[in-house]
């Protein structure tokens, strides 16, 4: 799926997609650069879309890692399922059902490009709460956003939150890195 097809899908489903273009390579690098390549990890991706971050994660992750992706748009799910990498499992369900599929304290990284500002408060609360619960004590929740609107929610949910910013995306984006601070 090229950028034009992503744009068409985004216009058709603007409320759930919340973007007009895919994440740029610079933004993707910034988002996932803390994830180590040399050890097997259990990684979750929320809102993979057509898979630009998924592909970068699969390139980066250790051969024995697992990547579980939650995506609600059927067109994006069909596209993601073309990927034959045995490490990837694509679940065509909402990110608020994380704990139906992942045990508490079992995940090293949750990588999210969900449009948090466009998701209803109760659903968003469940997504962040469940992300927290599935993370290992030393795990991290990584998220990019176009505004700081949900900084408060993340700060209330995770003891450690750091934010960086990149102009190299359309539009420019903030990258959150959140951890439980238990290790
Ligand atoms: C901004 S797009 C991100 C696409 C791609 N990962 C990127 O960064 O360019 C947000 C994605 O989140 C998906 N999404 C929105 N709400 C969701 C939810 N509750 N659960 C899972 N996916 C969701 C949308 O369908 C869309 O694919």
Automatic annotation (TrEMBL):
Residues 43-139 form the Methyltransferase domain. SUPFAM superfamilies: S-adenosyl-L-methionine-dependent methyltransferases. InterPro entries: Methyltransf_25, SAM-dependent_MTases_sf. Pfam families: Methyltransf_25. It comes from the Bacteria. This is Methyltransferase domain-containing protein.
